[in-house]
Amino acid sequence: MEFSSKLLENAVNEVAMLPGIGKRTAMRLVLHLLKQPNEQTQMLTEALTKMRNEIIYCQNCHNISDNVICEICNNPSRDHSIVCVVEDVRDVMAIENTRMFKGIYHVLGGKISPIEGISPSQLNINSLIQKVKENKVSEIIFALSSTMEGDTTNFYIYKQIKEYKVNISTIARGISVGDELEYADEVTLGRSLLHRIPFESSIKPM
Ligand SMILES: [Zn+2]
């Protein structure tokens, strides 16, 4: 792509760094912003900068929060002994929308992926295992997407907690393999939480 301006080229390159956005789409978005009043670009950059600088992750569950302890962890009517393990904030929002879950979450911040170079130490796994070791948890529910990375992550955690006195289950899959949680409809997701199965019976023979 030949640019008539270095400023335009820089902006397009930055926007094109976002996932799912190619150079053409980036160009369209940048040109759109140029046609809008200056304030709109300012509001956009301010919102992003403010989010980036001020965002807090809950000390207990690692979910994105406005406070040191998130609203879910702070809610005394939730069952703190039932912990649903998810990849990120989108999964928390999807499960909250079902209104079927009264426990708390543990947000891993990703999945183990050798291909993408994501190792267990880069995820919030140790703090989860610590909670189990400290007898704070009666049940762990795995709710990661059923991709190879999701299965690998579940199994990695399972191996480290199976000796402890904790029930380990996984959400039943009404959704096809590879579907991301956030795309599952609320009824299906709620049902798969309700009909969760013991993790051990879900492990495929290797
Ligand atoms: Zn929390």
Automatic annotation (TrEMBL):
Toprim domain span: 81-176
GO terms, biological process: DNA recombination; DNA repair
UniProt protein name: Recombination protein RecR
Zn-finger (C4-type) residues: 58-73
Keyword terms of this UniProt record: DNA damage, DNA recombination, DNA repair, Metal-binding, Zinc, Zinc-finger
Biological function: May play a role in DNA repair. It seems to be involved in an RecBC-independent recombinational process of DNA repair. It may act with RecF and RecO.
InterPro entries xref list: DNA_Rcmb_RecR, Rcmb_RecR, Rcmb_RecR_Znf, TOPRIM_dom, TOPRIM_RecR
Gene of this entry: recR
GO MF annotation, one: zinc ion binding
